[in-house]
Amino acid sequence: MKRLLALGLILLVFIAACGKKEVKKVTSDSALTTEAFAVAEKTREAYIKNDLTALEKFSTREGYRSIINAKKSFDSVDLTFTPMLVEIYGDTVHLYISWNGTWKKGGNVTEDRGLADFVLKEKPLKLDEVLRTNPFSKPD
User: Fold this and answer.
1) What residues make up the domain containing 42?
2) Could you tell me if residue 1 is inside a domain?
3) What is the pLDDT of residue 84?
């Protein structure tokens, strides 16, 4: 009986402690980071689908031009992005992405990986420049 009463008391305290809903506000840096991740993912999807209209939508004029100038033709691509680090400098966001890709063209298969620094600007964020190893410049 004492064990049952003690167990009931412990459960009551546990339920009361966990029952409070504490809502934390999203910080501006967190919202900017989430937006940067979304832009990178949408850009990746547009590149895979070879959708130039979508690439233009998620890029600044300079960013779109640099992607188109670096882009090589391919039949299919499997490209994955893993965000590694975000640095925010005022209105500019640097999103460091580790990427792995496999490009197929004709009978050739090219595999590569690297670390890219996506520079995002404007509001809403748009890809302005790709520094370091550009995943959009493959296959060689």
Assistant:
1) 28-133
2) no
3) 95
pTM of the model: 0.79
CA-CA distance, 38 to 125, in Å (whole number)? 10
* pLDDT category of residue 64 using cuts at 50, 70 and 90: very high
DSSP string spanning 55-113?
HHHTB-HHHHHHHHHH----SEEEEEEEEEEEEEETTEEEEEEEEEEEEEETTEEEEEE
**Residue 132 falls in which region: left (phi positive, over 0), alpha (psi -120 to 50) or beta:** left
Residue type, 60: T
* Structural tokens at position 11: 């459960």
Domain-embedded: residue 9 = no
User: How many CB atoms within 10 Å of residue 108?
Assistant: 10
Give the residue among 38, 106, 110, 36 at the shortest CA–CA distance from 79.
Answer: 110
